[in-house]
Amino acid sequence: MTVEFAPFADATVGRISGDIDVLAAPSFALALAHLTDGGSLSRVIVDMTAVDFVGTSGLSILSEFAESARRQHITWALAGNRAVLRPIEAIGLSATIPTCSTVHDAFDRVEKIAHS
User: Fold this and answer.
1) CA distance linking residue 71 with residue 58, whole number of Å
2) Rounded to whole angstroms, how far apart are CA atoms 54 and 1?
3) Sign of the C-alpha dihedral, residues 40, 4, 67, 106?
């Protein structure tokens, strides 16, 4: 798993690629925490369009991140491919994780949420 961070004018983007299995889970959790630590931006995009596999440990971390973001009033969205979105939908996490299929759509969703 690799992680890159890219600050934009009104959001921070975390680009994650590779497999998120039990071995990568601690690094994944740290990456998500880094997206919200001490930043002045309250908008986050989690770009998982280059993730090949998400195991149950990764899904659990995403669920915890969603709850943490809600408590911190962070507006966020996750962009993912089928390997990411399908398990999120299958176990019912799509009710708490705002998902999109492209980063562009995630930016639009964050913007819409922020202005509602």
Assistant:
1) 20
2) 11
3) positive
The Cβ of residue 83 has, within 10 Å, a number of other Cβ atoms equal to 16
Spell out the SS3 assignment of 34-92: HHHCCCCCCEEEEEEEEEEEECHHHHHHHHHHHHHHHHCCCEEEEEECHHHHHHHHHCC
pLDDT, one tens digit for every residue, the chain (116 residues): 899 998 787 889 999 999 999 999 999 999 999 988 755 568 999 999 999 999 999 999 999 999 999 999 999 999 999 999 999 999 999 999 999 999 999 999 999 988 87
Q: Which domains are delineated in the chain?
A: 2-105 (3.30.750.24)
